[in-house]
Write a structure and sequence with these properties.
179 residues; alpha/beta; Purple Acid Phosphatase, chain A, domain 2; 6-stranded mixed β-sheet; 5-stranded mixed β-sheet; hydrolase activity; EC 3.1.4.-; Calcineurin-like_PHP_lpxH; Phosphodiesterase_MJ0936/Vps29; Phosphoesterase
C-alpha cells in the first residue's frame, strides 16, 4: 500500500512564504508526493525532495530555468500496477475529458494535473481518472487552499480525499486595522 499526497501551484515565495503546516505534515507522512507544477522556485523542489519519501514533479508555465533544471514537463510512475501521469496544464475545462482521453488514456490510468488552482476529479469516457488538487497557497475562487491524498493498494485507488487548508486566525492587530 502506498500513501500519495498531491499538490500543485504552490507559487512560493510569491503567494506564500511556505507551505501550510498541515501540508508539510501530510508530505512527511506520505510514501509518494506529487507536485503538478508552478513551484516558482527551486528551493521548494529541494525542500519537498528532502522531506518526502519519494517526489514526482513537473515544471509548470510559471517555473523558470532554476526549477526546470530539476524537472521535466511530463512525468510518469507506476504504483502497485496503477499507471500515473503528471502534467501541469490540460487546457480549458470544456472538452478536458475528450482531450485527455485522446492524449493519455492508452498509457495511463490516472492523470494528475494543476494550473487552474481549482480541484477536479472526473473520469473520462475511456476510464482515465483526472485529478487536480487545486492549490494549498493560492486559492483563487475557492473558499480555502486545497490538496489531495489517496492510497493505492492492489491496483486500486482509495477514495480521493480533498483536504482544505484551515483558515489562518486573524491576529488582533490585523483585525483592528481592517475595521
Amino acid at each position: 500500500m502506498s500513501r500519495v499526497v498531491v499538490v500543485s501551484d504552490t507559487h512560493l515565495p510569491a503567494r506564500a512564504k511556505d507551505l501550510p503546516a498541515p501540508v508539510w505534515a501530510a508530505v512527511e507522512a506520505a510514501d509518494v508526493v506529487v507536485h503538478a507544477g508552478d513551484w516558482c522556485d527551486a528551493a521548494t523542489v529541494l525542500a519537498l525532495r528532502e522531506r518526502s519519501g519519494r517526489l514526482v514533479g513537473v515544471a509548470g508555465n510559471n517555473d523558470g530555468a532554476d526549477v526546470r533544471a530539476h524537472l521535466d514537463e511530463f512525468a510518469t510512475f507506476t504504483l502497485d500496477g496503477v499507471r500515473f501521469g503528471v502534467v501541469h496544464e490540460t487546457g480549458d475545462k470544456a472538452g478536458r475529458e475528450r482531450r485527455c482521453d485522446s492524449a493519455y488514456a492508452q498509457d495511463l490510468d490516472v492523470l494528475l494535473f494543476g494550473h487552474s488552482h481549482i480541484p477536479w476529479d472526473t473520469t473520462t469516457p475511456r476510464g482515465l481518472r483526472l485529478l487536480n488538487p487545486g492549490s494549498p497557497t493560492d486559492r483563487r475562487r475557492q473558499p480555502t487552499g486545497t490538496w489531495m491524498e489517496f492510497t493505492v493498494r492492489d491496483g486500486t485507488l482509495s477514495p480521493v480525499e480533498l483536504h482544505r487548508v484551515p483558515p489562518r486566525p486573524v491576529s488582533r492587530g490585523r483585525a483592528a486595522r481592517q475595521r
